[in-house]
Amino acid sequence: MTEDLLDDAAVRFLEACQHxxxxxDARERLRRPNSSLKVSIPVRMDDGSMxxxxxxxxxxxxxxxxxxxxxxxxxxxxAAEVTTLAFWMTFKTAVMDLPFxxxxxxxxxxxxxxxxxELERLSRGYIAAIADVIGPDxxxxxxxxxxxxxxxxxxxxxxxxxxxxxxxxxITGKPLALGGIPGRSSATSDGAFHVIATLRDRVxxxxxxxxxxxxxxxxxxxxxxxxxxxxxxxxVAVSDSSAAVHDPDxxxxxxxxxxxxxxxxxxxxxxxxxxxxxxxxALEVDALIPSALEGAIHADNVGDVRARVxxxxxxGPVTADADAILDDAGVEVVPDILVNAGGVTVSWMEWVANxxxxxxxxxxxxxxxxxxxxxxxxxxxxxxxxxxxxxRTAAYVHALxxxxxxxxxxxxxxxxxxxx
Length: 420
Known about the structure:
The structure is a single chain. By secondary structure, the chain is an alpha/beta fold. It has two domains: 4-12 and 33-171, Leucine Dehydrogenase, chain A, domain 1 (Rossmann fold, 3-Layer(aba) Sandwich); 187-339, Rossmann fold, CATH 3.40.50. It has helices at 4-17, 24-29, 79-95, 116-130, 149-163, 187-203, 219-230, 253-263, 277-281, 320-328, 336-339, 342-356, 362-387, 391-408, 413-417; strands at residues 35-44, 50-61, 67-74, 102-108, 139-143, 211-215, 234-239, 244-246, 273-275, 287-290, 309-311, 332-334. Strand 1 and strand 2 (50-61) form a beta hairpin. Helix 1 crosses helix 14, helix 3 (79-95) crosses helix 14 and helix 13 (362-387) packs across helix 14 (391-408). The protein is globular and about 55 Å long. The N and C termini lie far apart (44 Å). The relative contact order is 0.14.
């Protein structure tokens, strides 16, 4: 990943600053991360050899609470990518009014090349390398791309070994048996569904049976596809790294999920027809839902997009230049810092439950998540109408107003030069 991600993040930030109640002090504080750590993680491989992996942890801002953000294992992980993801997390937690800041971490590795034992050693080695900069009151990691609840369990256990104390609140997204919370594994897709349902009449007012194409059929994408299908949407295309599958009459999502569970890939699907992955982005659908990695829609392919609305389930799937082109074409983009915020919202519930030593029922998690996602979606839509803003800009302004108030509460230039 290149510095382009950071440039994209700056574009959205500077655009929103024009409409937010933000002091110069707050702007200055949000220009750079609080801390950025790069570590080397030596891992003994199963064949006896030693490999060293590059790991990162960035705490972008912690004005409103401990940093919060996932850990991804992927070959493209770089300092620039992790910094940008931590920047976005700062806005995401503020959008949802959570008592967190923004953080992110990752390791540059292809986890598919590792055995389970090697993956465990890497996971524990990563925590050993960053243990001094995380903690329940400092920075709270969670799962992200190619990490799951088992990996989080290993990491929480390693942190407990290092600190000689049981501290489950240091990591969220853990297995239920290790202090996890029911509903966390589906939180991102559930949250996205609530945002889509809340804004549907705004962005697709005249459509009775909307169609959708979902790029990315991992955990979030597959679960969201099922929820949309169950709600009367016609999901006509889905894709993963192995294949894209299309049926203009609507796919049998349950069959595709079962097929992927059995084979690990969408290729050779039991339903639909395989198409080129880029062709999925060009389908004439009501909603295009990128749910994979950053930069999926960019200047070179945005002209092919024929959807009426884009819901960003992935982090940063639409580049800033593509975003401007979509806006000129009248395509509404509902931003990632709102759409995929269900995961961090339920992570907050897990963190609170761990700190209080309580257990939370799944129905309570579900009800609280829906209420929070609906309330913030409606607030952003109202702000967009009041200030004549795109939904993306309105979401950033919504977050900046909260961040600015927190930063300014410690004093501004006017406080210290005597002009306040």
